[in-house]
Amino acid sequence: MVAPSLIPRKPGDRIKTDRRDAANLARLHRAGELTPVWVPDPAHEAVRDLVRARQAAVRALRQARQHLSGFLLRQGQHYSRPAWTLMHRRWLAGLRFAQAAHHLVLEDCIAAVEAATARRDRLEAHIAAALPDWSLAPVVRALQALRGMALVAAATLVAELGDITRFTNPRQLMAYLGLVPSEHSSGGTRRQGAITKAGNGSARRMLIEAAWSYRFPTRISRELLLRQEGLAKPIRDTAWKAQERLCGRYRKLARAGKPPNVVTAAIARELAGFVWAIARQAQPAAD
User: Fold this and answer.
1) Domain-embedded: residue 26
2) Are 182 and 51 contained in the same domain?
3) Are residues 123 and 256 in the same domain?
4) Which of 21, 167, 238, 258 has its CA 20 to 30 A from that of 249?
5) What's the pLDDT score for residue 286?
6) What SS3 state is found at 268?
7) Is residue 17 part of a domain?
8) Could you tell me if residue 165 is inside a domain?
9) CA torsion angle for 237, 238, 241, 246 (degrees, to 10)?
10) Rounded distance, CA 156 to CA 153, Å?
C-alpha cells in the first residue's frame, strides 16, 4: 500500500487510464519513488476512533467553558483564582444577578460544562478499558514511563502513529510529526524557518503538551513512579535519560533567550526520539 498523495505526477499529464496508471506505478516502483504507508487493522481503527471521540469531547468542554466565561465577563463577574475547581463552582453558585433570566443562563452554562466533563471522563474510562485487548498496549504502557506521558497522552500518540517501529530511525519520526524546521537554502545561504507541521497534528499536539512538563527540575514524582512499576529496567533507564537531557536542554534554551514556544517545540522534537527508542524496546519487531 502506497500513499496516493505522494505519487509523483507530471504537471502537464492530462490523460489518465488504467493502463497508463499501471505502467507509471511499475516504473515508479522500480525506481523506488513510491512511499509505503502503514495500514491499521480493524482493532486499531476502533481504538483510534475512541481516542478521537475523546478529543472531540475535550473540544466541546473547552467551548462550554469559554461560553460560560464569556457570559460572566459580559456581566462584570471575574474570578481571580484558578478556575474550574471546587472553590470556583461554589463561587458560581453564590453569584447574584439583577435579571432572573441571567440565573437561567448561568445554570444552563454550568450544566453544559458538567455534561461535557462527564462525557470526557467517560471516554477516558473507555480508553483505559480497551487497552488490555489491544496489540499495541505494551507500547502504550512503556511510553507512560516518560515524564508528561500519562495514559491518555500515550494512548493517543500510539493510536495516531500506529506501529512506531516502522520508522528506521528517530529522524524519520520527527519529520513525520512535522517537528523539524522548514528550510529554504540555496548555494552558500541556509535559511531555516518554523516547524513544517506536516503529518499527524493530534500526535504532534500530544508531544507538545508533554514537552511543557520538562520546564521543571528533574525528578520522579509519585505518579510517575507508579506508572513505571513493572516496566523493564532498560525502559526506565531510557525515561530517566530523557528527563536528564530534556530538562537541562529546556533550561539552556530558555537562558539563551529563546521564546517559550520555540523551546517547547525543540523539546518535543527530541522527545519524539525517546518515544521511538522506548517503542523499539517495547515492540522489538514489527508485526
Assistant:
1) no
2) no
3) no
4) 167
5) 45
6) helix
7) no
8) yes
9) -150
10) 5
Does residue 82 contact residue 88 with C-beta atoms inside 8 Å?
yes
Residues 170 and 91 in one domain: no
Orientation of helix 86-93 relative to helix 100-130, angle to 10°: 160
pLDDT for residue 263: 96
User: How is 68-105 classified by DSSP, letter by letter?
Assistant: HHHHHHHTT----S-SSSHHHHHHHHT---SSHHHHHH
Contacts of 91 by beta carbon, 8 Å cutoff, 6+ apart: 79
- Decide if 152 contacts 124 (C-beta within 8 A): yes
Predicted TM-score (pTM) of this structure: 0.87
**pLDDT (0 to 100) of residue 184:** 85
Cell 500515550 -> residue:
154
Q: What is the pLDDT, as a whole number, of residue 157?
A: 96
Q: Classify burial at 200, counting beta carbons within 10 Å of its beta carbon; exposed 0-12, middle 13-18, buried 19 or more.
A: middle
User: By three-state DSSP, how is residue 215 classified?
Assistant: helix
Same domain, 149 and 269: yes
For position 283, what pLDDT does the model report? 76
Between CA 23 and CA 2 the distance in angstroms is 15
pLDDT of residue 287: 43
**Helix (H) or strand (E) run with residue 183 in it:** strand 181-183
Which of 83, 89, 77 is CA-nearest to residue 62? 83
The boundaries of the domain holding residue 225 are 137-186+194-282
Same domain, 160 and 105: no
**Together in a domain, 151 and 81:** no
- Ranges of the chain whose pLDDT falls below 70: 284-287
One domain, residues 79 and 170: no
Domain count, the chain: 2
